[in-house]
Amino acid sequence: MNLQLILFGLINVVKEIDRFCYGIYQYIKGLDSDAISVISLIFTVITTIFIIYLTILTLKISAKPRLKVFLKKENGAKFYPSEVVKLRYQLQNIGHWYGKPAAKNVTLYINFESSFEPIEISYGSNLEIKNHRVFRGKKNCKYMKAEGIYLTYWEPGEEVEVKVKMPNEKGNYCSWIAAFSEEGDCGVYKFNIPVTKKEKSGKHNTHT
Predict the structure, then answer these.
(1) Which of 78, 162, 196, 205 is deepest in the core (most CB within 10 A)?
(2) What is the pTM (predicted TM-score) of this model?
């Protein structure tokens, strides 16, 4: 019975739309060519605006978090062989122009080449969450994990600190971070870490 009522209602709606379109047709038919051109242009503009609105709305609804991760190197700090340093990575939710969704339950996999020796990872609002567990990854890399991070667009961001021993030899090395959230993949961020020979003056640099 309910299905019959729905079908009956749909038929009436179609009839009303048909009657409306026929009325529009009769009205346009009585106009001259200039008036028809103006009406056609107005209809085209309205249709285009509506399509653009629907496209933006779809983008906004389906938007995923967009993160930015960078390595903080204060005062031009340098890295020396076998030195133990604290690397600070800054994590921000920069959003999109069409949508700025929160990044929920973000997990970071902070990777280092095998010649590094990761020691400790600290994160949280005041770096109060600490972990010493080191995992082995692809191509024998070493990585540490930070998880449960929540980022919104309007917040200043989150800092993750990794205490690590530099490689024993100078050279250009790489660190990279793979980021994931409840909403999906948030990208991979690569960082060049040059390790240089220490100056003979014996001056010590602090890396933060």
Answers:
(1) 162
(2) 0.69
